[in-house]
Structure of Radical SAM protein:
Amino acid sequence: MDHVADASEREFESFVASELARGTNFVTVLGGEPSLAAERVRYLAANFRLVVVTNGLRPLPLAGLEQATIAVSVWGDRRTDRRLRGYNRLDLFERSLANYRHDPRVVWYMTLPPSPSEETEESVLACIDNGNLVGFNYYGDLDRVGGDLDHEIGFERARSFVDRMIARYPGHIAFGSYLNTIVTSGYLKGSRWGYDVCGSISIADPANASRLANGHSYNPHFNAYGPDLIKPRRCCVGNERDCKTCRDVWAHMSWIALSLEHHLDNASDFYSWVATIYLFYGVCGVIDRQEFRGRLAEINRRDSEAVRSPFLAASHSH
Ligand SMILES: C[S@@+](CC[C@H](N)C(=O)[O-])C[C@H]1O[C@@H](n2cnc3c(N)ncnc32)[C@H](O)[C@@H]1O
């Protein structure tokens, strides 16, 4: 996606210094493969709260990364994972499971196709049996593979699958039913997802100036950088991505976070908002890990209940 050179050591250090100077306290590393630059990841962890997204093939070290959250990618069921990530040869999923067995830093980041197969639950269970938490993501068919991966199919079945997983394994799924509903429906309180409302856009990219002035909320600190770490790009998923079909979970999480005032009409709405924020802080390691795990089942149960309440059901119809 990026056609710029990687930052040199000096540029990397000056990037960290300038982010510290402007008050940055939280960094997400995704894109490329961070385990190939473990020293840099460690340096970031020494300076910021950190979430790192990795393919899981090469384990990230423990030393210096004890507090980091490690999101390990897996793509649907084993067959889909091998097809999309393993060139039908490599069992990346097995390797990642072995690398992160009982590692409390890990949340699996399971990218789902529009209609997850029955076997997908086995992959979820393998992650849970591995002693890790599980979160989700939804596949964008950017390479136009088509067929069962075509995102135009819509994600209603993926939404049902995630809700089923939350209901069956509430103490292990770090992903709320409300978040699931918002990302897969593309609606929040009657407002439709898209560039005009996405709040995770770089404040320092001049291309975003008119969006920042359109009256919708945005994260006033957010910047996404490419590998040169110099010029912010429009957002995490890049300048070319069509926002209408973007189902970036973190961007939708921000959308909810920035929409507090739309969740104050009744207790169910407010609970959904609080639960989403709690899950976010839990995944990111802001909340003590033990405490988060201890409360997860109850948070999920109440969040799912709130999503099924008549207030919310009404607000998502369009
Ligand atoms: C771009 S990857 C890079 C980090 C790392 N190399 C990895 O494989 O996880 C970061 C995350 O983006 C997700 N991702 C990549 N392409 C995607 C797509 N077309 N649709 C949805 N998610 C995607 C992956 O599942 C992965 O969890």
